[in-house]
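Example with several molecule types.
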Amino acid sequence: MEKFRFLLSGSGGQGVISLAVLLAEAASLEEGLTAVQSQAYGPEARGGATRSDVIISETPIFFPKVRQPNILVALTNEAAGKYLPLIRPGGLFLYDVDLVQPDGRVDARKVGLPMYAAVKETFGRAVAFNICVLGVLLALTGAVGPDAVRKRLKSNFDPAHHAANNRALDLGLDLAAPCPPYP
Amino acid sequence: MEKFRFLLSGSGGQGVISLAVLLAEAASLEEGLTAVQSQAYGPEARGGATRSDVIISETPIFFPKVRQPNILVALTNEAAGKYLPLIRPGGLFLYDVDLVQPDGRVDARKVGLPMYAAVKETFGRAVAFNICVLGVLLALTGAVGPDAVRKRLKSNFDPAHHAANNRALDLGLDLAAPCPPYP
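Resulting structure tokens for the full complex:
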């Protein structure tokens, strides 16, 4: 099994795909790991749900889709309800406390953080929310280093967005700092 | 076999991933088809090569990676050299005539068009080159309709880019108009 199997989910417009591409590129282009990133668009996508999978490994990856994530991110209640049943027992479930109210028991470590509120407070609106979520993921999992992501942010985005993107990444890193690492 | 198995390749910065996401979203969100889009980042990605796969089908898709594309797009010589050997016999090979000089024989229908020159002439620089390539693909394959892509362009991009994106799409549609359709 690959060490990091992310299932990232939310609604269209939350930047889930962009987050996934950044994570996969940071791992592969900056840290020499192997990464696969995919989106499957089925009937649920037409309801506004977005799902993107990222696998990061030190060895070749044969099947690009995540069947049992060990790290699940959900940014809407719909996404949480849909994908929580897939999580690996003992996995990590990251959600936004203001956007998601997880119900039911699940054999996973739940981490709820106010990422959406943090970017709203910092920027006055929901700017770079996905980058803040990515910062949390980096801090919790150590899957890739923050510097690798900063290089991709610089490479992929217009210079006008660099300051906000880096600030959002820092917000995420800071929010997650008190949480014990996974795994 | 799925009817449309696109392998889209070029170098980082040419917008190959964005093109792939637009194509998959237009098919799934606007036209009710099933689509899968994936990126694999191996050692070659660190050399600057980009590859993105899109499968569009009317039925469920079980393996998200394209093993034998029936439609190959290459926007650099490196990408053409690397991926042409994978093309399905009789498939469609689309390349930019100014960026790629295909050598060797290949059992595929070669279509070389001046997409890069067209956007440079229209915009003064290489704006929305990937959208122009997408316009060509739509005209050649009929995989999705132009209106489906226009809706995704409107939904995914800042209003400031709408006019240029739609103009680039039209450029691609016009460039491909004289070419017979595939398949």
